[in-house]
Design a protein that fits this description.
This protein has 117 residues and is α+β, with helices and mostly antiparallel strands. The strands form 2 sheets. Strands 3-4-5-6 form a 4-stranded antiparallel β-sheet. A hairpin with a 4-residue loop joins strand 1 and strand 2. Helix 1 runs antiparallel to helix 2. The longest helix is centred in the first third of the chain and has 22 residues.
Length: 117
């Protein structure tokens, strides 16, 4: 486990917790895939131009010293920059469930990977 904590900036405040570089890399891959799905939804054809294929949601889970779950349905957001994710962070003593901006989550994970890399 890395000694550098992952800090996620929330809509109000932030939360820091132990997170491994490998788990952060997996989360980065998952959020990159979500961005592709969000862009596909944002670039949907004009009304009457055909049916849009629903995109799969992001359902990332990591169990370690702290359990982290990230959920986002790309079909409900007009653009990737408007998208928010639902975060659940818990361990034996505390559980936090809140929303965070997707773009901020991506920035936080990238910054963490730069620090530990």
């Amino acid at each position: 486990m890395s000694s550098t904590p992952l800090t996620l900036n929330l809509l109000e405040g932030s939360v820091s917790f132990s997170f491994s570089p490998q788990a952060a890399q997996e989360l980065k891959v998952a959020t990159d895939q979500l961005m592709v799905s969000l862009k596909a939804v944002a670039n949907k054809p004009t009304p009457g131009g055909g049916k849009v294929t629903p995109q799969p949601p992001l359902e990332y889970r990591h169990t370690g010293e702290v359990f982290l779950e990230v959920f986002c349905n790309p079909n409900i957001w007009p653009t990737p920059f408007a998208a928010k994710v639902l975060l659940t962070i818990r361990n034996l003593n505390i559980r936090l469930t809140t929303e965070a901006e997707l773009t901020r989550l991506i920035e936080d994970v990238n910054q963490y990977l730069e620090q530990v890399g």
